[in-house]
Amino acid sequence: MNLQDRVLDIMRETFGIDEVSTDVSQKNCDQWDSLRHLTLASELEDAFDIELEPEEIAEMTDFSRVIAMLESKL
Fold first, then answer.
1. pLDDT at residue number 62
2. I need a surface site. Which of 24, 69, 70, 73 has the fewest CB within 10 A?
3. 26 with 61: CB under 8 angstroms?
4. DSSP per-residue codes, 32-43
5. What is the rounded distance in angstroms from the CA atom of residue 55 to the CA atom of residue 17?
6. From the CA atom positions of the chain, what is the Rg in Å?
7. 37 and 29 in contact (C-beta within 8 Å)?
8. Contacts of 60 (CB under 8 A, 6+ apart)
9. Per-residue confidence (pLDDT) for residue 47, from 0 to 100
10. Structure confidence by residue, pLDDT tens digits, 15-70
11. Could you give all domains of the chain from N- to C-terminal order, each with its CATH number?
């Protein structure tokens, strides 16, 4: 499974929705609230064995930024 598919799976599970596309963002996903944002960060840390800084977590506002952040860590 590639990076994008893994992240989409984590987002689906974290946000509790069946379909998540690569254009998902805090602006267009009602389920992406502050609590689920922190849960997403925690799930990504666990899944990819990384540690995120608070600034990095704050910048994860859409799918493409999440991918870019992960690619810089891996």
1. 98
2. 73
3. yes
4. --HHHHHHHHHH
5. 26
6. 11
7. no
8. 37, 40, 41, 66, 69
9. 98
10. 999 999 999 999 999 999 999 999 999 999 999 999 999 999 999 999 999 999 99
11. 3-73 (1.10.1200.10)
